[in-house]
Amino acid sequence: MHTSPPATVEGEAHENPALLHHFATEEQQKNAASLGMWIFLITEIMFFGGMFCAYLVYRYSYFGDFAAASSSLDLKLGTINTIVLIGSSLTVAMAVRCAQVGKQKAIAVYLLLTIILGVAFLGIKAIEYKQKFDEHHVPGLANFHLEGHVPRHADVPVNQNHAQIYFSLYFAMTGMHALHMIIGVGLFAYLTYKAYKGRYGPGYYTPLENGGLYWHFVDIVWIYLFPLLYLIDRHP
Amino acid sequence: MANNVDALYIFLLVVSALMSVLIFTMVIFFAVRYRKKAGVRAEQIDGSHALEITWSLIPFCVFMVFFVWGAAIYFKERRPPQNSAEVYTVAKQWMWKFEHMEGQREINELHVPVGRDVKMIMTSQDVIHSFYVPAFRIKQDVLPGRYTVAWFHPTKAGTYHLFCAEYCGTMHSGMVGSVVVMEPKDYQAWMGGGGNQPLAVTGEKLFAELGCATCHKTDTQGRGPNLVALFNKPVLLEDGRTVVADENYLRESILQPTAKIVNGFKPVMPTFQGQISDEQLNALVAYVKSLGQQSNAPAHNVAAATPQP
Amino acid sequence: MATAVLESGERETYLNREYGIKSWLLTVDHKRIALLYLMGITFFFFIGGFFALLIRLELLTPAGDLVQADTYNKLFTMHGQVMVFFFLIPAVPAVLGNFLIPIMIGAKDLAFPRINLLSWYLYIIGGMLMVYTILAGGVDTGWTFYTPLSTEFLKTNVTTAALAVFVSGFSSILTGLNFIVTIHRMRAPGMTWNRLPLFVWAHYATSIIQVLGTPVVAIAIVLVALERLFHLGIFNPTLGGDPLLFQHLFWFYSHPAVYIMILPGMGIVSEIVCCFSRKRVFGYKAMALALLGIAVVGFLVWAHHMFVAGISLYAALIFSFLSYFVAVPSAIKVFNWTSTMYKGSITYQTPMLYAFGFVGLFTIGGLTGLFLACLGVDVHVTDTYFVVAHFHYIMVGGMVMAYLGGMHFWWPKISGRLYPEGWGRLAALLVFVGFNLTFFPQFILGYMGMPRRYWDYSHSPEFQILNVLSTAGATILAVGYLLPMIYFLWSMRYGKPAPDNPWNAAGLEWTIPSPPTTFNFEEQPVVTWEAYNYDELDQRREEVPVAH
User: Fold this and answer.
1) Shortest Cα distance from B267 to chain A (angstroms)?
2) Domain A51-139+159-230 carries which CATH code?
3) What SS3 state is found at B164?
């Protein structure tokens, strides 16, 4: 296990102003920050996990209704969003890479691109939500109605209660995901500002790395959400 | 069966008491015997693998006895005997509504005769309740939207507390009643008073009124499956699964007919959700269960004034 | 060693380094944050305790004649929520854990001091939401929030209560995260895993549970709030939902939560028993593994709260079987504490009295858990006072006694003062007697059939005598709890100044002054000795101060 070398008395000057007083070395600080972010991401997995669990239970019980509801989502927009988000993970990775090799100016550019792609994602999501609202697919409202029938059973209409459960989970899961993205965009705005100020470089880019981890995690959640929500029983 | 629970409880008590006494005695004994004395130092002891293993394995074996014995009781307790008399129960905030197969309805009081198995088929109209008769050592949560089942075998006449044991709102502590166990002759007398329509007959009438008979014919195959002798038999569904036609299946088929479509049939049955009360649903279920089961019709061996379906 | 001295001539400590409310509300010093938490949890302990007193007063008579039914339902709900989420879960980790863990491992602070402060603010925000809920008329769902009662049938402040719990959950998660990273990355040279005090191991195991379990109840509560606000049907059977799904999601956290509550207490007891027996712990590795074992297996048993809820027979069998596994490491710990006393050199100061109490009462509480894990018996006693007695034996007889024992043990370190030993022992005795009188009768009540959460039992007057005994015990218990409040406060002004190591105890915290300086250590320690080196300490023949 990692142990730290002896520290000096507090209050003395360190080479790197980023080194916080309670850490003995930069390496210890960096390792602590990384471990902290990984653990945080594990808590996020458990958090989303609860909703995924509810989703799995109901999808198993109400498969036909879930399939019908799923096919009412806009596959084109969903796919675009997936590409957008994966692209934004690429730009984050590029930003970290630039920091590692010392391309200072490019860092802020890539971070800004990430934000733009993130905002694009949120914008498209907003359009999708509006679509759902217009089509009366918002659960809990009196005017909810999902027309159509269960796939391969032209004579079985969709059970409205079960469809509402699908959409409840749809909004809860994508909404929670979007909330995380909004927080991510805010975080990245801060990182962009700091990068612009020249804060990050080969000697210190921990916040970029950890911010990147967070962003990648949010991306991975979407990569699960997309097929589970959009692609139930879809056929070419 | 309550005796079995008590026997196990006493066994648990004895083992626990012994264990507690052992620990208490050792702690007190050590506290006194090894009290700090001038000039005497503590002896540093690292531990002992042998002891750790011993006092892990032995308790575990004892625990397994608890587990197996408890599981055996629970197994019996979750499986009502075949020819039990059935009582349909609807729980609601804050009362218990019972309906006997012979048609008697009771609120908060349940009369049963000594010596006969009774199976409670229960549902809730609103929130989760729990059917608890301490004297019988049974308890079962009662859920909205489905049936849960409990059973007991009264052995002694008397009046026993019935409590709701799952917090259900304001008058949770007022949702109490009694189970009145009577000697068979007294029970006959109680039952005879008041010409009640047996539950299954009520169900039969509803079956006709609601148009079920249009598709579910008893003599030929109609648009819907033949329900004669259906209860508790396996049913092949059109998606390939096989399920048992128990009370919950029957209930679901009436309220959500498209949830499980029987193989070879079209999903044309309308839903009755919201159109019938829980009591009416119970009557229909009781009727369907009785179809083709004349020989083991349980409640009808008691002399009843009304004809059987 | 040079020690900083203030203008007044006093030695500089973490307490007097800076004054003023800003220096407290914006502190990142783990020790000050611990004290901030201490104020919060003491406040909530007395609120929850006050509700308990009202409950016990109502139950003196069979009729519901003190408060109305709805009020009573709010009292037990809020007693549970306040005690569980705002006292039991944070108490030991956020007060003693925060204060001691960095020092015990030889670090200057936790890995993330600012996140530590954020944790406290989240706790306070959650707490304020809870206070708001109480003042706005309360909530009466039961602390368990079962659906569809909580989502469809109650008009009380369910959503704000859910929000309060949700926010406090994040406080818990961040504390756990902080501890795990600290223990992994901030140990001083020579402080290997095998030399860690069991107090630290206990918090490590606890933190794993906090980090993995809390998010699940967070999402369950969010779904309940959404369902309530938007009339969704996720848990509502009339809309196709399943109320049992809520129960699974809820108990998946809430069972491990009870281990969050007890494991830190076990860590405290190990420290105290070793110190006052002057011995290293019997079976250090087994004790550490037992802590981890409880944390892991504790995640596998949640549905033992649902044996009569309508789960399948086979699920019930599995969960009963697994529940017996979790009892084994707990038993090991009791045996090891007892063995630690064997051939020790034992004294009976207040912390040790609480430790004795813990060992006895946790044993009883744990044994009654075996009754509940047993399917045949559980059917009869679940949802009755038997369960109430069981968990209070562990939470109050166990956890609260451990907490008080720990507060007394480390009070000299935290405050720099000695508490009055005579009063300490009296309070410990009152707590022990009061506790048993309050809760032992409840086992009997439960087996007799008295259900939980009953405002009125006039249909069963045979329950009254045991209820009266229980209430009598509660009043004694209340006095036992008030005393430490009073004399701890008293000691801050009038108590004798404490030496660095009043107990001649092992552990890095006793090598620094009482109270410590802000950065704990003048120089980072280099550890070359094993944990619980009591033979060495006694060799140095320092006097243990006698009670005064």
Assistant:
1) 6
2) 1.20.120.80
3) strand
